[in-house]
Design a protein that fits this description.
Number of strands of chain A: 12
CATH superfamily of the largest domain in chain A: Response regulator
Oligomer: homodimer
Number of domains of chain A: 2
CATH topology of the largest domain in chain A: Rossmann fold
Largest sheet of chain A: 5 strands, parallel
Helix content of chain A: 40-55%
Strand order of the largest sheet of chain A: 2-1-3-4-5
Shape of chain A: elongated
Radius of gyration of chain A: 26 Å
Order of helices and strands of chain A: EHEHEHEHEHEEEEHEHHEE
CATH architecture of the largest domain in chain A: 3-Layer(aba) Sandwich
DNA sequence: GCTGCTTTTCACAAAACTGTCATAATCATA
DNA sequence: TATGATTATGACAGTTTTGTGAAAAGCAGC
């Protein structure tokens, strides 16, 4: 669910935005002035923060500056028509968008959506390990060999992911059991061997990247 | 050319608006009451529709509700000053703006221009995910398969939207419960499974895009 | 309070996975 | 190369996890 913080000293505006946004399925938190906005943004994380420029106690720009110190949430400013000149000034504060009063809630919602999408797109770089034709996508929990998806059992994924994350590091069976199976696993050391076997089969031509360290354990070799 | 529909039972108002608007180069159509407005809006498409709230036969809100069923045109309401309270009520009907009587035609024209600008901007960035015959419109909260609208329960929409917004990302049941159901949901993990089942049924031929990640959770695969 | 729809829980069957073990293969070294 | 130690492999029984239908619980509109 998208969480937004709306800061404006006019109650009517907050109310209208809240009503519309909740109707759209957002979770809305209100603040009456800049100071309150800063506090609430510190206490809780939001997906988007909407700040009026003219507010008592602390104006929108100062609030934005303060909030940006500890939050990556995109900020949308609300400005009266006469404040157009501020647009130029504000972008260096990391302000994502401006909406000019009077605005339609519909437009604000649309812009919030766009801001969220932008910021999440920036974050959503998939975590992938690539080596020749081997592709391990940690985010999607997916392994491809020469472009073809390879399906594995949960333990195979977990084991492979741990080995690859610790590539070129010697890992004892004890260490593997502890990290992949969990500290509370009381079973045979040799269990690891069996799973290594299955993993090698799944890895096909890349099977040799899992190297046996005699008398020690295994490692994944890049 | 911008086409507007102005509905008001007072002839004088229609006339003033028409004169001013035509001077601005708009094409104006008039309606004397809500019913007529609904009919004319159905027959022809407008860029903006201006509705008086108090009208015989069908009031502005009801007319708006009806018109919104088949039109995306922004609606501007005309209200007597004493009807302020209506502002809150009307927003969920998709009303874009209010102009309080008595108004200056100049102001109305300005707001019409703003509304036109907004609606074209909002349309341009309608938030839609498409994949072959699958179309998920987040803004309209609507899902189509091969052009046919698929109706779902609220939870199905919510779950699908979250999965699609996080396409190709492995999502655990806990994560899904937290994000779709809310952090305060204290229920069974398996609830997710049941909803996944229903969602898959709703998705018909696209059911396989929701893939099971054994021992982990689910993900939506593009 | 009824009614119909949605959501959650539950139980069971089916499917998939895991750990163990016996046996074969491999390795290091004397 | 013979030997003992270590690792690889195949099979399988037991366990875990998931899919599903149905029942129960919730909820909104009348």
């Amino acid at each position: 669910m998208i969480k937004i913080l709306i800061a404006d000293d006019e109650e009517k505006i907050r109310e209208v935005v809240r009503e519309y946004a909740e109707f759209e399925g957002f979770a809305v938190t209100e603040a009456c002035d800049g100071m309150e906005a800063v506090e609430k943004a510190r206490a809780e994380s939001f997906d988007v923060i909407v700040l009026d420029i003219m507010m008592p106690r602390l104006d929108g720009f100062s609030a934005c500056k303060e909030i940006k110190k500890y939050s990556d949430a995109p900020v949308i400013m609300l400005s009266a028509r006469s404040e157009e000149y501020d647009k130029l000034f504000g972008f260096e504060l990391g302000i994502d968008d401006y909406v000019t009063k009077p605005f339609s809630p519909k437009e604000l919602i649309a812009r919030i959506r766009v801001a969220v999408k932008r910021s999440s797109a920036a974050l959503a770089e998939a975590d992938v390990f690539r080596y020749n034709g081997l592709e391990i996508n940690f985010t999607a929990r997916e392994v491809c060999i020469n472009g073809k998806k390879v399906s594995m059992t949960p333990k195979e994924y977990d084991l492979l992911f741990y080995l690859v994350r610790n590539a070129n590091i010697a890992l004892s069976r004890e260490k593997l059991l502890e990290e992949v199976w969990g500290y509370d696993f009381y079973g045979d050391d040799r269990t690891v061997d069996t799973h290594i076997k299955m993993l090698r089969n799944s890895l096909g031509e890349f099977r040799d990247h899992i190297v046996t360290l005699r008398g020690m354990g295994y490692k994944f070799e890049k």
